[in-house]
Structure formats: C-alpha cells, structure tokens
Amino acid sequence: MSCRKDQVKIEKEFSFVHLSHSRTDNLNELNSEVLLADFSNIDVLCLGGDLMFNSSADSSNLNILDEIFDLSSPSTLWSIGNHDVSDLNLLQAYTQKNLYSAYYFNGITFIVLNTQLEGNSITGDQLAFFNGVMDTMTVSAQCIILHHKLIWLDNNPDLEPIANSISNGPLGNCDYCIAPNNFYTAIYPRLVERQKAGVNITLIGGDIGAKVNEFHHETNEHISFYASGMKAGSDQQQVLYILYNVAAQTLQFSYRMLNTFH
After folding, report:
1. Which of 36, 40, 122, 149 counts the most CB atoms within 10 A of its CB?
2. Domain ranges within the chain, ordered by starting residue
C-alpha cells in the first residue's frame, strides 16, 4: 500500500489514472489488487465511485481508502457512487472537498459531478456551478469531466439500445439505475460550445465493470465518452491510464492492468 503525495515535476508529460468500482461484496473489504497498488507517481488520481461496498459507513473504511488514495490531496478527485453515500459529512471530512468541484492542472480543467442527486440530473446549485466553470474556462486546452453514473447513455439513440449491456446499473428509476436525466438538455450543449471554442472535452464514468470493464464512444461533435471500472472477484483488473503531453496539450488514453502499478 502507498499514499500518493503531490510532487513537483519538470517533465513535459504527466500521467493520470481513473479507477472505479473497486468494491467487493464484503462490507469492509477493498479489491486486493488495489491494496497492492502504488500511485505515488500518478499526477492526478480520478476515483469513479463505488470504492467499497459502503465506503463512508464509518471511519475504518475511509481510513483504508485514505491510506491508498490520499483522499485530501487536491489532485485526488472522487466522483461518488451509490455505494459511497452513507455518511457524506464524514466522507467530506476526509476529502476536504465538495461533492462536486473543479480542479485546474497545467492546462486541463477537471470537473467532478455528483450524479447521485435529483435522479442523476445536474440541477440547482450544481448546475449553476457547472455553468460557471463553463463560462470561465478561458485558458484550458482540455476539459475532463468525472462522474459515476453513465448519464450519457440515457436518451442517446446510438447508446441507449446497448446501455444495459455496458452500465452496471440498467436504465430505470432504482437507486443504482441510470434514471432519465437532463444531460443532453442542460450539460451537453455547453460542452459542444466549449468544444467549438477549442477545448477538447472528455467525460469519464465509473459505474462499469460488472458486465464490461471498458467503454469508449465519440460523438458526432467529437466529444469523447469513456468508462472504466473493475469487477469483484476478477483476476483481470484494469484502470484507465491517461498520458498528458503538456507541450502539445494532448491526451493519450489506454487501459492498463492494475498489477502494473504494484
């Protein structure tokens, strides 16, 4: 196990990891591959939710997660899932962050959305926050949006027919489902605006792994949807690895086995 600490780098490339659904079916257990991982050389660590069966139930679970992921680090970004929400006040005491937030890193704006509110829709204060970030994104070449539920599967004629074969939670109105939401009316048009203004947009969801452990789709507007997650009990655990070239301001995405970080 290893805590990740922020480090000053002089290289022209930085690395990010997106890791999600690391829970098992046992209340106080984390995927054994994750326990062995060392993320100390990763510059931004993106956690896609459902990290433990009941992540915020008590301090013992959060202590485990904090030891591995350094939850209060500004560059540890957690988009919470339905298995993370038992005690949000306790969770925030560890993360020292709001449940939706933004983080700027060397020409990239990261946005963390909370898809556990309002039937997966982004509304109210969270929508105002999102629009504020969109309105003031003046120096970023890239924008990466992190979220748990795969909200872009709903109401998409290309993706909706295959949604239930991709997402852990099916389309519907249950706690773990992808509920009908406002992604394509309130969020996507703003992303298209920024894309046309020269900001490359990538969204990464975390509620995946039980059926497939990776997914990628590019829209007609050249906005990328990724998803990455683990399956409890599998010996083929992987994460989404992102290499950022600062000079070129480009991102390179690949899926890597988790044991390469041991």
Report:
1. 149
2. 13-261
Instruction: Output 195 or 11, whichever has higher pLDDT.
Output: 195
112 token code pair = 């963390």
d(CA 81, CA 238): 19
Answer whether 159's CB lies under 8 Å from 152's CB: yes
CATH topology of domain 13-261: Purple Acid Phosphatase; chain A, domain 2 (3.60.21)
**Nearest by Cα to 98 from 121, 123, 125:** 125
Helix (H) or strand (E) holding 63: helix 59-69
Least confident of 12-16, 81-85, 117-121, 203-207: 117-121
**Cα separation of 228 and 215, whole Å?**
7
Q: How far apart are CA 188 and CA 35, in angstroms?
A: 36
